[in-house]
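A student in our group prepared the protein record below, which I am reviewing. Thanks in advance; the entry in question is below.
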Amino acid sequence: MNRRIASGRLSEILGKDTVKIDRFVRTLGIKRAAERQFDHYPVAAKRLLQAYADGVNAGNAGNAQLGWALPVEYLLTGSKPGHWSPTDSVAWMLVMAYDLGGNWQKALQRLELSQYLTTKQVWEVMPPYESDEPISNMDFAKLYKDMNVFHQKTGPAESKPQNLPATELSQWEQMGGRDGIVSNNWALSSKFSR
C-alpha cells in the first residue's frame, strides 16, 4: 500500500474512490522526486536502500514459495505484492515528510495573516489549541517582516484586510494530513540532558 500511495497507484486496486488521491500524489511528483534524489545519494546510502529492497522482494517471493499468509490488505484487494525498489523507500520517506508537515496550510495562513495582524491578533483569529496560552511567545509577525518575507511593506493594520486566506481541505487532508495529527517529534527538558 505504501508503494502504491507514493506512486499514485492506489486506484489500480481500490477503484475510482482513490483517483483524486492518485492525481494529487502524481501532481506532486513524489515518485519522480524520489528517483531524482536517489541519483544524488552517496553510494553507501544507495547500497543500504538496495539491500532493504532486496529483503522486501525476497520476503515477498518467500510468501509465494512457502505458502505464508500475505497481509490482509492483499486478501481484501485481490492484489499481490509488487516489486519494491530503492526509490520506493525514498518515495515513502517523502510521503512521510509531507504527512508529518500536516499543518502546513495553517502555517501559511498564519504567515499571510501576519502581514496585517500582530502575533497576538493572529493567535486570537487562529487559536493554536484549546488552551488560552499561545504555543510560542515569539513575535513571528515581526520576524517575517524583519526577514522581508512579504513583497510589499506591510504590517499590522487597523483596517480589515482585503484578501484573507481561505481554508480548504486538500486531497491530502482527506487522507489524514489534518492539523493536530500525532507525529514522532518530541523534546526533552534541558534538565534531562548532559
Remarks:
- The two ends are 42 Å apart (CA to CA).
